Amino acid sequence: MTLDNILEEIKKAKTIVILTHETPDGDAIGSSLAMKLAIKELGKDADVIIPEYSRLFNFLPGASSIKKESDIKKYDLAISVDCTDLKRLAEGDKYFESAKSKIVIDHHGTNKMFGDFNFVNPVSPACCEILIGMFEYFGIDITKDIGSCIVTGIITDTGGFRYSGVTAETFEFTAELLRKGVNVSDIYKRVLDTKTRANFELNKLISQRMEILENGKIAFTYINLEDEKNVNAEEGDHEGLVEIGRDIEGVEVSAFIREKENPKGYKISLRSNDYVNVSDVCLMFGGGGHPKAAGCFIQGELEQVKAKIISEIKKVLK
Ligand code: 5GP
Ligand code: MN
Predict the structure, then answer these.
(1) Are 175 and 135 in contact, with CB atoms under 8 Å apart?
(2) Ligand 1, atom 3: nearest CA belongs to which residue?
(3) Residue pLDDT, tens place only, 177-228
(4) For 272-298, what is the mean pLDDT?
(5) Is residue 299 scored above 90 in pLDDT?
(6) pLDDT tens sequence across 118-152
(7) Stretch 35-46: mean pLDDT, rounded?
(8) Which residue among 296, 298, 309 is best mutated to probe the pocket of ligand 1, counting the most ligand atoms within 8 A of its Cβ?
(9) What is the number of the ligand 1 atom nearest to the C-alpha of 85?
(10) How confident is the model at residue 96 (pLDDT cuts 50, 70, 90)?
(11) Ligand 1 centroid to residue 164 C-alpha, Å
(12) Which has the closest alpha carbon to 22: 70, 102, 82?
């Protein structure tokens, strides 16, 4: 069984690195740190390498140990969490490809199974939720610190227990973590109810620019590099912006696009409400994600990129 293999690989390895996807969210960072703390319970050290992340996650246990890079060029074991493919794995080309053994743990249906051992459960609402079952199987005590990381991932990826992927188990796990002393309401406030000033400014801007198209079924908005510069945006300051369009009555698909340089183009974020599988739409452009939350990258100027993505979305509207 894959889980036995994973435990064996962890026990065997002398050097371990944990990696996650670029522009990491709460599930990505929470999964990485929970994994590190769990490995510590097994008596081993692991490096978490995340080059850039929002400072809002600095409260997480173990966050101060996050590295931007490492002197170790070839780890015995690399573990990817919450990431669909090697292309999206931050520093994957440096530390994942070169590792002697590779493990992938994820909850995206579009996962490319790019490890030697892949533990992927697309039904799980958060990668962090997969880790609970895994740690229990390994006989690891889920401490308050591990639980705080896990709850962070669950809360961010379920929009605060609101999305349809949430199951009775999600609440049962969370109840168990509450009993262990995890401060769920404090974490909720920090990761969902706290906005940076720059995020608030971008929020105003994209709301003003929001276009409602196709009889109200598509909400489209964007930011460019200059906007981000004007508000001193940092990593993570675009979080939640795509959800503003999604929450408008009658909208089926919300599209939020963000300018990038090298290569020049736009990072696309899509959300849907009811029947559109936005992961399928993003797959058309080499991206992926979940049925109701997905992303991709499209090269080109604003108008070109907008036309391309809107045209694909239109094909799947009823
Ligand atoms: P977001 O819009 O919040 O950046 O991403 C929504 C979901 O889609 C997340 O689960 C994220 O991991 C996934 N996703 C975003 N961009 C990409 C991409 O370019 N490729 C793939 N495979 N998944 C993506
Ligand atoms: Mn996730």
Answers:
(1) no
(2) 269
(3) 999 999 999 999 999 999 999 999 999 999 999 999 999 999 999 999 999 9
(4) 97
(5) yes
(6) 999 999 999 999 999 999 999 999 999 999 999 99
(7) 98
(8) 296
(9) 22
(10) very high
(11) 18
(12) 82
Domains and CATH numbers, the chain: 2-193 (3.90.1640.10), 197-315 (3.10.310.30)
Q: What is d(CA 96, CA 315) in angstroms, rounded to the nearest whole number?
A: 37
Nearest residue CA, atom 22 of ligand 1?
288
Under a CB-based contact definition with an 8 Å cutoff, are residues 17 and 75 in contact? yes
CB neighbours of residue 69 within 10 Å: 11
Task: For residues 159 and 192, give the distance between their C-alpha atoms in angstroms, rounded to a whole number.
Answer: 8
Q: What totals of helices (H) and strands (E) does the chain contain, helices first?
A: 12, 11
What does the alpha-carbon distance between residue 128 and residue 32 come to, in Å, rounded to a whole number?
9
Smallest-distance ligand from the CA of 295: 1
What is the mean predicted confidence (pLDDT) over 42-71? 98
Q: Can you list the positions of beta strands (E) in 136-199? A: none
Query: What is the dihedral sign for C-alpha 211, 213, 215, 217?
Result: negative
Per-residue pLDDT band at 1 (split at 50, 70, 90): confident
Q: What is the mean pLDDT of residues 236-257?
A: 97
Whose atoms come closest to the Cα of 111: which ligand? 1
Mean predicted confidence (pLDDT) in 95-124: 98
Q: Name 80's bridge partners.
A: 19, 104
